[in-house]
Specification:
The protein is mainly α. The chain is built from eleven helices and no strands. The chain has helices at residues 9-18, 45-49, 67-89, 93-104, 119-134, 138-147, 157-176, 180-192, 200-214, 220-225, 233-249.
């Protein structure tokens, strides 16, 4: 998906030059940089499920009043993204996560904000996400789950199961770092069985942990209401204590 160029031809071309030769490949004749072919990319689950918290230079901006202003903002976004990508490729996990989110923002269901970016660079966001997740960044561990399996790779049963295991481990690690959203997602998935077999006790435990981390007490009735499967009084009491312990132990 590419935005119509309209009157942005000159400024968008300048934006491509800012990003370097690897961004806009030159034609075999040595002429001006060739615009990358338009390739549709699916909207990620992150784009659908949670707003990306981007660096200031990549954040959503009001509609441009003139093509020149829009082109200038595009150049600024691309320059900021270029710097993040360069740092990520040098091993900076924070930059890798920011680069992932900057590229993921180009794949939302609305009109594209990133004309001319090659599909290969957009796909590289998955490597940046894995880099940040394996570095232990809780927000990246959450994004790994929200992104979903890598649609750029073949997805057989074994690879999907590997993704589920990695996503579950990432959410558990984020919850252990006191991330309440991760605890809430775990409560939901242990109830639904999305990533692992259903476990009403763990669903309650992580719901209690989320409530404690957010400062919102949970009643027995509310815990029972959210479960797809029933839980007896003794199991509920034990799960509540487990959840309180999870919240107390997180660092």
């Amino acid at each position: 998906m590419t935005r119509r160029w309209g009157g942005l031809g000159v400024v968008a071309l300048a934006a491509g030059l800012v990003l370097g030769a690897w961004w806009m490949p030159r034609s075999p004749s040595g002429g001006p940089p060739a615009t990358a072919p338009a390739e549709a990319a699916p909207a990620t689950r992150l784009a659908r499920a949670s707003p990306a918290m981007l660096p200031v230079a990549l954040a959503a901006e009001p509609a441009a009043s003139t093509p020149a202003r829009e082109g200038r903002r595009t150049m600024d976004r691309y320059a900021a993204l270029d710097a993040l990508i360069a740092a990520a490729r040098q091993g900076d996990a924070q930059a890798a996560h920011a680069a992932y989110r900057g590229l993921a923002a180009c794949l939302g269901p609305d009109a594209p904000r990133c004309p001319g970016l090659p599909a290969s660079l957009l796909q590289e966001r998955m490597r940046f996400l894995a880099q940040a997740m394996h570095a232990g960044l809780p927000q990246a561990q959450l994004d790994f789950y929200f992104e979903g399996p890598d649609l750029g790779q073949a997805q057989d049963a074994a690879s999907l199961q590997a993704w589920r295991a990695e996503a579950l481990a990432g959410l558990q690690a984020a919850a252990a770092r006191c991330e309440p959203l991760a605890a809430g997602v775990l409560a939901t998935q242990y109830d639904s069985g999305e990533l692992s077999p259903r476990d009403p006790g763990l669903a309650v435990a992580y719901a209690v942990a989320e409530g404690r981390l957010r400062g919102r007490p949970t009643s027995d009735a509310s815990l029972r209401d959210r479960l797809a499967e029933p839980i007896d009084d003794a199991a509920l009491a034990a799960a509540r204590q487990q959840g309180l312990a999870l919240a107390a132990a997180c660092r």
